[in-house]
Design a protein that fits this description.
- The structure is a single chain.
- Strands 2-1-3-4-5 form a five-stranded parallel sheet, sandwiched between helices. A five-stranded antiparallel sheet has the order 9-8-12-11-10, sandwiched between helices.
- 41% of the residues lie in helices and 20% in strands.
- With 327 residues, the chain is of the alpha/beta class.
């Protein structure tokens, strides 16, 4: 059985020797930066990815965070040659296969890689659904009494028919107003019941966050839309872009993704749509299943790097959530 290992070495000379150190049954591909690795992983996920902590375009921890959200079977190994307890704690929470620190011998490194290759990919098992409670047996209906021919009996029968109709009619607006509401609460970063609202007072800080993101990444435009695809805030230009058609299509896709998240019990999931084209790259991020943040890159002007887009946009989304939660 053959395996595939992807190594992002950065300035780590030991990782650069892996193609010569591992046996022929293990294919090793050596890349220089994290962005190239992310595109490669999307096309053909390796069995194991090992990366140095210090990379030219992002650190290994950011790379690992992106890979976890891709939900791939790849086992991730990060090696920090400078020990750092805080980074180690963060890595342990991030679901990496292994986090290495300090000086690591070649023998130890090869052993860790072999352990990762033979381990079965971790699959998140869905939580078992609770068994439905048995429905109570219906109470036996009382036997009808024989009708009397007297006028009093007729009035009683008439009242019974009115009562029966009242029981069968749908509840009126007044009746419904007394029922307890069952509105769904939103859980965003642990704030139960939080709501996200766009109003005139928030347009300026929202535009400021989006403008900063535009300066960092250089897209043609960044759009904040509602779940129906209606543009709320726009930075850049949408010239020559079919946004009237494009945004509702993205909205439809994310409605399905939102339902998937709800069925899995996810309240703070990140959904990302990526289109890599000849002329345009499009990234669409979900914000708390309420809004969409769309980035469009004109490749004739500026190309996109998935790693930089992910890291910077995730930070911007956190800032936007803070603004949208403010009263």
């Amino acid at each position: 059985m053959s395996y595939r290992v992807l190594a992002i070495a950065g300035t780590n000379d030991v990782l650069r020797t892996l193609p010569e150190q591992l046996e022929q049954t293990i294919e090793v591909k050596l890349l220089e930066n994290a962005n190239d690795a992310l595109w490669d992983v999307r096309e053909s996920p390796p069995d194991v990815l090992i990366a140095d902590m210090n990379l030219p375009d992002m650190n290994g921890q950011d790379l690992a965070e992106i890979l976890v959200n891709f939900d791939l079977p790849t086992r991730v190994i990060i090696w920090s040659q400078s020990p750092d307890a805080a980074i180690q704690q963060e890595a342990e929470r991030g679901g990496h296969f292994r986090f290495l620190q300090g000086a690591v011998s070649l023998e130890t490194l090869l052993g860790v890689i072999h352990e990762a290759l033979v381990e079965e990919p971790r699959v998140r098992e869905p939580e078992p659904e609770p068994e439905p409670e048995p429905e109570p047996e219906p109470e036996p209906e009382p036997e009808p009494k024989p009708e009397a021919r007297s006028s009093a009996g007729n009035r009683s029968s008439y009242r019974s028919r009115l009562t029966s109709r009242a029981r069968s009619r749908p509840p009126s607006h007044t009746d419904r107003s007394h029922q307890q509401p069952t509105a769904e609460t939103i859980d965003i970063h642990g704030l139960h019941g939080g709501t996200l609202v766009v109003n005139a007072d928030k347009l300026s800080p929202i535009r400021s966050v989006m403008s900063q993101l535009s300066q960092e990444l250089g897209p043609q435009c960044i759009l904040l839309t509602d779940r129906a695809g209606m543009v709320l805030v726009e930075v850049g230009t949408t010239e020559n872009l079919p946004t009237i058609i494009l945004l509702p299509l993205l909205s439809t896709s994310f409605s399905t993704a939102g339902e998937v998240a709800r069925q899995l019990g996810e309240t703070d999931a990140t959904t990302l749509y990526i289109h890599e084209g000849v002329n345009y790259d499009v990234y669409c991020f979900d914000i708390a299943q309420r809004f969409l943040l769309v980035l469009v890159f004109n490749k004739k002007v500026a190309s996109s790097k998935i790693g930089a887009v992910w890291v910077n946009t995730k930070r911007a989304i956190r800032e936007l959530q803070d603004v949208l939660r403010e009263r």
